[in-house]
Write a structure and sequence with these properties.
A six-stranded mixed β-sheet has the order 2-1-6-5-4-3. Strand 3 and strand 4 form a beta hairpin. The protein has four helices and six strands. The termini are far apart.
Length: about 180
């Protein structure tokens, strides 16, 4: 294989990994109520069609912050990532998500759901960085669940630490050893 073909394949592999990392950063940002990390997954001129919110990324972040203020519990997992390059700087990306969400709605009632669907994204590469330019969330499964009656401390028992929001979650303290 000529060196130029190998170089192109290496660039494509690096681009694929950068896109996957961006998807994972989105999950961290939305689940840990980390505005900076959430924003880092999108270009400033991005559009997000997210079901209950459709519009510019700044509005989506404000919508997310209003949800975070109600103290929800979220966890998102990404799988089945299919990346189709349209050009060296544009990719169409379909990724499956599974999410568990619990929180108060606009009426103050706490609800819990298991959700599955797909992120149908247009990614764009600018200055060697890949981010979402357009997102459409496709919902394939929504299942209401019973909200647990016991507190997290009772349910989790000795299983600590319990996940929390930025900056308190243990992910933000990796590499910072605690004495004793």
């Amino acid at each position: 294989m000529p060196a130029t073909d190998m170089d192109a394949r290496i660039v494509e592999l690096m681009d694929r990994e950068a896109i996957r990392d961006c998807l994972y950063l989105y999950c961290r940002g939305i689940d840990r109520a980390d505005e900076a990390t959430l924003r880092s997954a999108y270009w400033p001129d991005a559009i997000d069609n997210h079901g209950s919110y459709n519009g510019p990324i700044d509005g989506f972040v404000e919508w997310a912050k209003a949800v975070w203020a109600k103290g929800p519990r979220n966890i998102h997992a990404i799988s089945n990532v299919l990346i189709e390059f349209q050009s060296p700087t544009t990719a169409h990306v379909e990724s499956y998500f599974s999410a568990l969400q619990r929180g108060a709605g606009g009426d103050g009632v706490v609800r819990q759901f298991a959700l599955s669907g797909r992120y149908c994204d247009v990614f764009e590469k600018r200055a060697d960085e890949w981010r979402v330019l357009e997102r459409t969330v496709v919902f394939d499964w929504v299942e209401p669940q019973s909200v647990p009656e016991d507190s997290e401390e009772v349910r989790f028992g000795p299983r600590t630490p319990i996940g929390s929001n930025f900056p308190d979650d243990p992910v933000y303290h990796m590499g910072k050893r605690k004495a004793g």
